Amino acid sequence: MKNLLLTLAAIVIIIVANQKVFSQSFYVIELNEASFSPAELTINVGDTIYWQSMGYYNHNVVADDSSFYIGDLSSGNWLGMLVLETPGIFQYYCSIHGGPGGVGMSGVITVENATEVKDDYVSISKFDLIQNYPNPFNPSTSIQYKVSSISTVSLKVYDVLGNVVSTLVNEEKPAGAYEVTFDASGLSSGVYFYKLTTGSFVETKKMILLR
Fold first, then answer.
1. Are residues 156 and 189 in the same domain?
2. What 3-state DSSP class applies to 68?
3. Does pTM top 0.85 for this prediction?
4. Is there a single domain that holds both residue 87 and residue 147?
5. Are residues 61 and 135 in the same domain?
6. For residue 3, what is the DSSP state?
7. Do 106 and 149 have their domain in common?
């Protein structure tokens, strides 16, 4: 089940209907010692939410209206996913440390209708490289990047010695938002770097493979 959830984390949800395109995003809510971070979140219909508990036991996610239940009280490491398909305000809490109506360890998600992007084109104002998710990961992770104008794009992964261990992208791309999956099945645990190069834009971020 955990492997399935990690695989789902690498999928971009794209909705195309009647030649209308909607920008989809994913958000991470961390379960800390006695709080959700962030506790308040505003998203669009169809966006993906991940609740991630890393080492904290006795936490779960329960909707005030019982429409969803996520988590494993007995486990300190789990990843839960939810896609909300209708607009509204969704309150939730941890059944051990909170309660309905914003009592104790609780959170709220406001879901709004997605903004339509016409002419099958997603407007991107700048180049950007986004932190991979999940991180740490095993064995695969998702990397998102944005291209503001048609450009030759290079996205490579390096080890700590500066050796290229994988070339994920090396081609011309039109403006838009993209996502690729890095599969590190043949690599050992450790720190790796991924670098996006397009024209004069260069950005590098760190990720951790943890087996």
1. yes
2. coil
3. no
4. no
5. no
6. H
7. no
